[in-house]
């Protein structure tokens, strides 16, 4: 897998999701849902910078996440490849959840961040998102979770572009472990 496929920028993710919206439109039978999807697409396209859009589409094309279709009338259409569809579905951050294995491995996943005050809104969004996927706040900028979640954390860090401000630890013991075990229903 090339480096381009592994790491996609915000604009590239947005393009994949917008292209996926066309697929969603075709799959839904609800007229109400059709209307909602159609209303959202133009709003999102307008938010994307033109030069960033061109670079992102080219990168997606090179990464084989979109395919170019030339038409007789001289127009070009970009559509999601099968790999692009799978990738776009993984980007649905609002529906992200961490799958829990049957048995706990007795290790804690600790996520720590130090985001500057000038990026307070970003910090608050990150904090909220960690809570939404089930992490528990150990301290103001330290979250803990008992199950493997590195892929989900990586995705969130990419989504918010905060990788340089965040550290991820795997630890065997925390001094208030019993309290955490009760919170996660592990005892």
Please give a structural write-up.
Helices cover 49% and strands 16% of the residues. With 187 residues, it is of the alpha+beta class. It folds into 2 domains: 3-91, Arc Repressor Mutant, subunit A, CATH 1.10.10; 108-183, Alpha-Beta Plaits (2-Layer Sandwich). The strands form 2 sheets. It has a 4-stranded antiparallel β-sheet, with helices on one face. A hairpin with a 2-residue loop joins strand 4 (136-139) and strand 5. Helix 2 packs antiparallel against helix 3 and helix 2 packs across helix 5. This is Transcriptional repressor PaaX-like central Cas2-like domain-containing protein. It comes from Candidatus Nomurabacteria bacterium RIFCSPHIGHO2_02_FULL_42_19. Residues 102-174 form the Transcriptional repressor PaaX-like central Cas2-like domain. InterPro entries: PaaX-like_central (IPR048846).
Provide a compact summary of the structure.
With 187 residues, this protein is an alpha+beta fold. It is 49% helix and 16% strand. It has a 4-stranded antiparallel β-sheet with strand order 4-5-3-6, covered by helices on one side.
Write the layout of secondary structure elements.
Elements: H1 3-6, H2 10-27, H3 31-46, H4 50-62, E1 66-70, E2 76-80, H5 82-90, E3 108-113, H6 120-132, E4 136-139, E5 142-145, H7 150-160, E6 166-171, H8 177-183
Output the helix-strand order: HHHHEEHEHEEHEH
- Summarize the main sheet: 4 strands, antiparallel
Based on the coordinates given, report the CATH architecture of the largest domain: Orthogonal Bundle
User: Do you know the CATH topology of the largest domain?
Assistant: Arc Repressor Mutant, subunit A
Supply the helix-strand structural class. Answer: alpha+beta
For the record, what CATH class of the largest domain applies? Answer: Mainly Alpha
| Shape annotation | elongated
| Percent range of helical residues | 40-55%
Overall number of structural domains: 2
Strand order of the largest sheet: 4-5-3-6
Please tally the β strands and state the result.
6
Determine the number of helices (DSSP H or I, runs of at least 4 residues): 8
Radius of gyration from the alpha-carbon trace, in angstroms: 20 Å
Unreliable spans are 1-6
Strand content bin: 15-25%
Query: Whole-Å distance between the termini?
Result: 41 Å
Mean pLDDT: 78
Domain Transcriptional repressor PaaX-like central Cas2-like: 102-174
InterPro entries: PaaX-like_central
Protein name: Transcriptional repressor PaaX-like central Cas2-like domain-containing protein
Pfam family, one: PaaX_M
């Amino acid at each position: 897998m090339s480096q381009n496929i592994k790491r996609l920028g915000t604009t590239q993710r947005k393009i994949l999701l917008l292209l996926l919206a066309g697929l969603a439109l075709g799959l839904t039978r609800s007229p109400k849902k059709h209307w909602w999807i159609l209303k959202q697409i133009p709003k999102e396209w307008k938010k994307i910078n033109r030069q960033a859009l061109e670079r992102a589409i080219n990168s997606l094309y090179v990464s084989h996440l979109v395919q170019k279709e030339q038409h007789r009338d001289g127009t070009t259409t970009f559509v999601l490849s099968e790999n692009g569809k799978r990738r776009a579905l993984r980007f649905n951050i609002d529906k992200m959840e961490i799958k829990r294995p049957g048995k706990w491995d007795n290790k804690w996943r600790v996520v720590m961040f130090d985001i500057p005050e000038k990026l307070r809104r970003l910090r608050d969004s990150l904090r909220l998102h960690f809570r939404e996927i089930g992490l528990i706040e150990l301290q103001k900028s330290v979250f803990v979770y008992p199950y493997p979640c590195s892929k989900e954390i990586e995705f969130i860090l990419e989504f918010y572009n905060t990788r340089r401000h965040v550290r991820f630890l795997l630890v065997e013991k925390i001094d208030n472990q019993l309290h955490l075990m009760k919170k996660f229903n592990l005892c």
